[in-house]
Write a structure and sequence with these properties.
Elements: H1 3-18, H2 20-31, H3 42-77, H4 93-99, H5 103-142, H6 154-160, E1 170-176, E2 185-192, E3 202-205, H7 207-217, E4 219-226, E5 232-242, H8 246-262
Helix pairs in contact: 2-3, 2-5, 3-5
């Protein structure tokens, strides 16, 4: 094998062993809804991945070593020689480097890294992240600063975060602040751009039904998303609280409840 090919192979193995575990945690954390306000630079991503690399690799190696000793004792009891597989316990970075030429070790290490990267990401997002935010807010309050929200952007807080116990369609009214025509769109927002997409967009469904219903009942506004740059106004409507034709709305709800009871 040529020197260049050997170097490329060593680089590939190095990425699997020393980069992927941390990057997997970083990937999971973002999928679970914790996104920075701006996209991280490659150097920042590398630093964060390095921090996540330590617990992921530690748990992976502990599990690997425990499994190795269990299997080793079991096979010795059965008088089965498996030394030809080339596997051995790993307790140091040098041992990782020496085992990196063994495809079985790389396979087991990669599988364990995927599993524990997921476990660490779930643990971080569900427990430690909120504790860190709480401690940060304690310091900010002492310094007379407003609290940080558990979401990292206004877009996430309005469109992506579920504010009720049950996820329901977000019925919105969209308009432009400087629009002279007064045109408005009303519909159920079902899909939204991800935080890092350059052009923000949403998908509206049931436009005609929601528009007619809103024109007749004039639902109350829960909250408003206002884009300072473009002047776009997105109002979330509370479809349980009409301001007009309230008696008709009440009668309609009673009819729906009666039909559900009959079913």
């Amino acid at each position: 094998m040529k020197r260049k090919e050997v170097r490329n192979l060593e680089s590939f193995i190095g990425i699997i062993l020393f980069s992927i575990p941390g990057l997997l945690v970083y990937f999971w954390v973002q999928l679970f809804g914790i996104n920075p306000t701006v996209k991280h630079l490659p150097t920042e991503q590398a630093a964060i991945a390095a921090l996540f690399w330590v617990p992921t690799v530690l748990l992976s190696l502990i599990t690997y070593n425990i499994a190795y000793f269990i299997v080793d004792h079991l096979l010795l009891f059965l008088n089965f020689n498996w030394s030809n597989l080339g596997l051995k316990p790993v307790f140091s970075l040098k041992a990782i480097e020496e085992s990196s030429t063994n495809l079985l070790f790389i396979f087991y290490f990669f599988i364990l890294s995927i599993v524990f990267s997921y476990v660490i990401a779930v643990t971080w997002t569900n427990f430690f992240y909120m504790k860190v935010i709480d401690h940060v807010n304690e310091v900010r309050i002492k310094r007379k600063f407003s609290k940080l929200d558990d979401t990292t952007s206004v877009w996430d807080a309005f469109f992506l975060k579920v504010t009720s116990d049950k996820e329901e369609p977000l019925v919105v009214e969209i308009s432009k602040l400087d629009s002279s025509k007064g045109e408005k769109l009303v519909g159920s927002a079902t899909k939204f751009s991800r935080p890092y997409e350059a052009d923000k967009a949403i998908v509206l469904e049931n436009i005609d039904n929601n528009r007619i219903s809103h024109e007749y009942y004039q639902y109350q506004t829960k909250r408003i998303y206002f884009d300072l740059k473009s002047g776009l106004v997105v109002s979330e409507l509370d479809t349980t609280k009409p301001t007009k034709n309230i008696e008709d709305f009440t009668s309609f709800l009673e009819e729906v409840e009666a039909e559900q009871q009959d079913d």
